[in-house]
Write the structure tokens for this entry.
Amino acid sequence: LAYFLHTLILFTYDQLFDVVLPFTIFGVCSAYSGSTLNLPNFPLRSIYCRVGLVFIWLWMMCLQVTISNQRHPSSIAEDSINKPWRPMPSGRLGIEQACQLLLGVLLLNGLVAHWLGVLDIWMLFTFLMTVYNDWGGSDNSFTRTLLNAAAFAIFSCSALQVALLDHPMTRECWEWVTAITLVILTTIHAQDFRDEIGDRARGRSTLVTIFGHSVARASLILMVFIWSFGLPLRFGVGWKAAVVIHLLGLHVAYLTVLAGTMRENRVPVDKRMYRMWALWVASLGPLPLL
């Protein structure tokens, strides 16, 4: 059992930091923002239950999509370069076993989605997952960026819907989800720098491989600055309350520039930058509460 659970965690290890934790914060903080998002003031004691529900559901969605993605021979070859510790390249699981596991996870997630009241958005997520992993959606830079942004939009929407339990999403909630989706859409290429070697080996087009480091890094820094200052202004948050967002944004920019000046061994810095980017995204989640 411990070996099996360890295997599941290895499938989703990266997503714990860039999806599960940030969007748990986003969903719960948004649900408890009250009048800012035109929501009722939920009792504080219910927050513990909702944090657990949101965290577990996001992790289950990540498990589904990571098994689907990592089971393909091309993904195994790429991971053997970028992430050899993952279950498939490390030999913990074979392709046929992964397919069987995916089927079981799909059935379980469908039942849980129905119970949580998010079956419709889970079905959309599963369709987009199939487009990305099985119909070549990840091989083109444009479709890859759109599908990644759509997935993150679904993560944010699902997190908020689960955190709200039976309360419907308000217009302000949808606007907030849309804003976070635009943040992801315009900065998601932060993940491409660390995976450049594997992407080139696979022949995958990304913003980095098409336009080069200078353009990709400059656009990332620009958009991080725009969102770091623009979103707090949107919610009327002063610079003191938004100082964490500003500092994290500056650190993302610093690491992006630092890696860009290095001719060799820049991957560890790009990995740190991507983790910092995930923290920066997480720091945006509490904005409606500030």
